[in-house]
Amino acid sequence: MCKDCKAASLNPEFEFLLHSENSHTQPLQYDIVGTKDTRKRITATTDAPFRYICQLLIAMSDGNTYAGTGFFIGPKTILTAGHNVWDHFTDKKIPVGDITISPARNESTKPFGSFNPASIITSHTGFSISDFNTANDYSIIQLAAATGSTTGY
């Protein structure tokens, strides 16, 4: 187990989240709710409902890559937290080219490929950092292709 994962009490089954896309020179940032990682690993990510879930890799202005999740709610529509599409350092929406979406990702396997959003809609026009962890902390990611027709939603 890597010293960074051990220090954060990260379940060893999930170390790949920190190390597969980015090396230790640019590790993913993460939060654990509580003091111990109690998640259960799903390997059948192409089965419903897991194939509706997308990993988001988000390049922030601080130079680090962060991970978040979203899920399909329509053929070209993903629902996610607003803080996943908002730069915590500039208090601005993250450019669509700085977000990579991978539905049903399982370690390095990306059965539906990876792509960038076509556009992002926040919960309201004046969205800002003050909306994080509130009822307004959500956004819609719109896609160019109808990938949700393949994954389901």
Order of helices and strands: HHEEEEEEEEEH
User: In oligomeric terms, what are we looking at?
Assistant: single chain
Shape: globular
Mean pLDDT: 85
Tell me the number of strands. Answer: 9
Q: What fraction strand? A: 25-35%
The largest β sheet comes out as: 7 strands, mixed
The helix content is under 10%
Number of helix segments? 3
Unreliable sequence segments = 20-28
Q: Which structural class should the secondary elements be placed in?
A: mainly beta
CA gyration radius, whole angstroms = 15 Å
Through-space gap between termini: 35 Å
What would you say this structure looks like, in words?
Helix content is 8%, strand content 26%. It has 153 residues and is mainly β. The strands form two sheets. Strands 1, 2, 3, 4, 7, 8 and 9 form a seven-stranded mixed β-sheet that branches. The longest helix is centred in the N-terminal third of the chain and has 5 residues, at 3-7. The N and C termini lie far apart (35 Å).
What's the helix and strand layout?
Blueprint: H1 3-7, H2 16-19, E1 28-29, E2 53-59, E3 65-74, E4 77-80, E5 86-87, E6 92-93, E7 99-103, E8 119-122, E9 139-142, H3 148-151
Parallel strand pairs: 1-3
Antiparallel strand pairs: 2-3, 2-7, 3-4, 4-9, 5-6, 8-9
Keywords:
mainly beta, 7-stranded mixed beta sheet, two-stranded antiparallel sheet, 3 helices
Provide a short characterization of the protein structure:
This protein is mostly beta strands and 153 residues long.
